[in-house]
Amino acid sequence: MFKKKTVDKYTYMTETPVPKLITELAVPTIISMLITGIYNTADTYFVGRVPGEATAATAAVGLVFPLMAVIQAFGFFFGHGSGNFLSRMLGAGKKKESSEMASNGFVMALLFGITIAILGNIFMGPLVEFLASDKVDASTLAMTDDYARIILIGAPFMMCQFVINSQLRFQGSAVYAMVGLVAGAIVNIILDPILILVLKMNVTGAAIATVLGQITSFVILLIGCSKGENIRLSLKNVNINKYYIVQIINGGIPSLFRQGLAAISGSLLNHAAAEFGGTPTVSGITIVSRTMMLLISALIGFGQGFQPVCSFNYGANKKERVREGFWFCVKWGTVFLTVIAIVCYSYATNIVEFYRKDLSVVSVGEVTLRFQTIVLPLNAFIVMTNMMLQSIGKGVKASITASARNGLFFIPAIIILPKLFGLTGVEITQMVADILTFMITIPFAISELKKMKSDIMVAGLHDSDI
Fold first, then answer.
1. Cα separation of 197 and 200, whole Å?
2. How far is Cα 167 from Cα 102, in angstroms, rounded to an integer?
3. 414-460, pLDDT tens digit by residue?
4. Residue 301 CB partners (closer than 8 Å, separation 6+)
């Protein structure tokens, strides 16, 4: 019975037509990413409705976002590192290695999350000083402290939910992964208005709602591990050694670079924004950052439907399916982002006003949003290339492409451009970084696609000889 199920899973992942397979796996992840994106913006929306403290509260949420990005970075590091490996092993028929990797990735994330939660609260003073700026008022600093302390308590749950979610997706169980994330998002969205507005808990309520949502997702995803053909997490399978650590680093370091550098760049962006208008400018930048995260979340969900197809079939030596899946995702991802970009550019003012009808906030937000939407379609090729490189185990190339948008190009840009162009330099930084990232991504993608094509041709010649 168990053998039959294993064969069915293999057949499904390696013989289902690629467009159909990616679509089936992507629909749940797109839904989960969109809802996750909505609840990531929910805190910003509802604290923006707090009478008399809306601008400061919005800025505080934005200042803590880099910290959340760090927590997410390590969650994706352990999740994608273990998920990529176990998927390739399943494709190669190596169940034991897959099971051990799943448990190792989970336990390592749990221990690391607990460590961050403890150290973060011990060194909260210096941490808030790093996240904020001397241009930010005292009220915003106090709210930043309150919000960050509670968010840190949820660090172990946040990390582990990302790990389990990634592992489930890479096994082709996208529906289980979706249910877990969506449930947590719904809890967060329901609790936000109750805690923030009804009970008047302000940013403290926003943080509590976020953490309770994460705990909900964690519990449901943990239960999902025991369903169907999914690999069970077990302490018996924990075997942390050099081999598994290296595999997690190879498969997860691109995610760590991508998310970790997003935290650094986000902090630098907040500091630069504060220099040109203080709290209102930080609020405007925060609104745009959360909006863009929501816009790209659907693309990331689409790419997450591609990742298990990519890694599983690469492990099964069906590289023609990897190439087909890549171009399928790039084509439709570009079309989708182009439509979204046109709409957002046209209604930029209305979008920012949805969060805050403050002229000083809107004036910064609408300009920044328009600059970023101009190059939004480029992200389809950028994201899919990075996901392909990471999924097939090309750690170095994947790390470079993952680091480019929020690190290699963004960090120098946010340091240099504001000095040359003032506030406009802050507003165009992400646009410039996206263009440069697109340019460096092209040769990485083409070289790997050509190599796969060559391998396919060689395999075809060997088959014909037989």
1. 5
2. 7
3. 999 999 998 899 889 999 999 999 999 999 999 999 999 888 887 66
4. 26, 29, 30, 31, 32, 33, 34
CA distance 229 to 172: 10
Q: What is the DSSP letter of 378?
A: G
Closest CA to 281 of 433, 422, 109: 422
Compute the distance between CA of residue 398 and CA of residue 393 in angstroms, rounded to an integer.
8
Rounded Cα gap, residues 153 and 284, in angstroms: 28
- 105 exposed, middle or buried (CB, 10 Å; 0-12, 13-18, 19+)? buried
Count of CB atoms situated within 10 Å of the CB of 24: 16
CA-based radius of gyration for the chain? 22
pLDDT in tens, 7-39: 467 788 888 899 999 998 888 888 877 776 676
Half-sphere exposure of 255 (CA within 13 A, CB side): 30
Q: How many CB atoms lie within 10 A of CB 10?
A: 16
Residue at token pair 């003032």 = 422
pLDDT tens digit sequence for 43-93 = 777 877 776 677 778 778 878 887 888 888 888 889 888 887 887 787 777
CB atoms near residue 229 (< 10 Å)? 13
DSSP 405: I
Q: CA 149 to CA 351: how far, in whole Å? A: 30
Instruction: With beta carbons less than 8 A apart as the criterion, state whether 113 and 303 touch.
Output: no
DSSP secondary structure of 186-198: HHHHHHHHIIIII
C-alpha distances (whole Å) from 319 to each of 83, 323, 398, 449, 458 are 19, 6, 18, 9, 12
Tokens 């909505």 -> residue: 38
Q: How many Cβ atoms sit within 10 Å of the Cβ of residue 201?
A: 17
Element (H, E) at 109: helix 95-122
Q: Where are the beta strands (DSSP E) in 204-344?
A: none
